[in-house]
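User: Hi! I'm working on a homework problem where we have to compare a predicted structure to a textbook description. Could you give me the structure for the chain below?
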Amino acid sequence: GIQRSCAMAWLLSKGTDFLNKAKEQLEEVAQSDLLEKAKEAARDVAEAATNLSETVQAEYRRTFEDLDCQIFRVRHNLLIMEHPSVETIERLAKRLNQEYAERMLIFNMSEKTYDAGRFEGEVLDVAFRGLPAPPLELLFELCLSASQWLGADSENVLVVHCFSGYTRTAMFLSCLMTFRGLHSNSKEALKEVSDVLPADGLSEILPSQQRSMSYFHQCLSGYTPMPKVLRLSKAMFNTVPAFEQGTVALRPFLEVWSNGDMIFSSFTSSAAGSGTEDVTWPTSYGAKDPCVSFQLPPDLLLQGDILMRVRHVYLDGNKDTAFRLAFHTSFAPDDGLQLAKHELDGACSDHRFSDEFFMDLVFEDPSKRQEGADEGATASAIFEKAREVAQQLREEEEKRRVEEAAAAAAAATAAAAAAGAEDDEDDVEALEATLRGGAGLADSGAAGASGTPAKPKPAGAIPDTAGAEELKKALAAASADDAAAAAKQVPSAKTSPREEPNAKTGAKGAGADIDSLFDEFDAALSSASQASKPSAGGGYGTSESPSTAPEAAGSKDVFADVDDFLKELDSGLSKK
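Assistant: Happy to help. Predicted structure tokens:
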């Protein structure tokens, strides 16, 4: 509470000082009677005040709402967080508990323990000592456990973290997303994970981790790794990196780890710190030496996930890892393995290693090849179950995508249909208005024949003849469009020379029919117009003379003809 009050007081004081200075500048400009500059200064002050307010709010959210925590959302149920150190665990726990209490599962891949009780959810410590990625079987077991947790409740979330950086987390989530069918391969998934991280996780993924992802993809595609024992008979690397200046560039020694245990080291830590004169130090190599080779025991057997580290020893006894590599014996060739600089952790991005650098491992076929049959059966069951679950998850994900695509297509079709219906209604209304305009003269004629004055048209109304002419043009254009559409409905992709004249003839014929109809319409309108003319005295007769009755009857016949025309016209449009 005190820290929060102090922070807010500091932010407000800074904001107040800034606004006071801006106000003083504004008063100076006003005193100079420069109105335009004063307006510009006022706008600058307002903009600066807005920016300051946004900065204060962002700082407040980061400090008190986000609690200055590094939490990244890959999907709605997949989260990455920084390592909960002594300084950050309280803020991380508070923020996650506020939103995901009793609904989160945390995978701790840091190989470091902490007070897991602060989190209102289960924390699983994933131990794979020294390896850059979980062992292959463990990787599939983690995918199964995570999928079961996420499938139990749609509100459940998975939170993953490592110790320094995010490479282990990014590698695991990439495999998990591929396992669940969210991506077709782990490389695509890795790109999505990397996009939410503060650094480019794709370039930071180690070569050994990329190898593990390749193994994972092969197993997911149907390959079942069986136990395979190899005897390491020789280990050497080409060219010498310079870790020290002078005649000695490197004092290397080799460590071999299997299943989290170190099974061989060419140099022990006790020798370096014993202080005795008879200590056997690793062989020293100069920068111009062509290669480095290690003496190995005859019974150095390798099986499963293997980690090798080449380290440098300084004269004071301190050690530094020069490079390392991890691989699985089931995927290694029987005779040996050669890895270039870009395939070795550490060396791939270290300028002290030449581009010609590579590591050679020579294997021999041991007599213990048949051992571990029971372990192989257990591993086979794990991989088969994982493939079965992954296939089911991929099918469910594909079904969900198809349903979402169908729903989106249906919504788009409905929207297009609604828009088309509105356009059709507008076209019908326009046609009806044109027809009414074309029939206006007939209404005038009927009014004159009956002796009733015609009602005056409103100001700005379209003249009757113009309406009829508009109707002609609209119908002629529609007829031409129909003829063109009919011409296109030919089985062949290209229209034959004989078919083209027929289409044109059809268009001309349709136009001639419409012209004939309008000729009749014009004649009827002309007759009606003459019948409705006023008398020579300038007014309409108040009584019908015997001579006007037949004219009225003739006018009625004329309008009957007009009605017949309109019915015929309507019938022709409905047929189309």
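For your comparison, note the following. Confidence is low (pLDDT under 50) at residues 271-276, 441-465, 490-508, 531-556. The radius of gyration is 44 Å. Good luck with the assignment!
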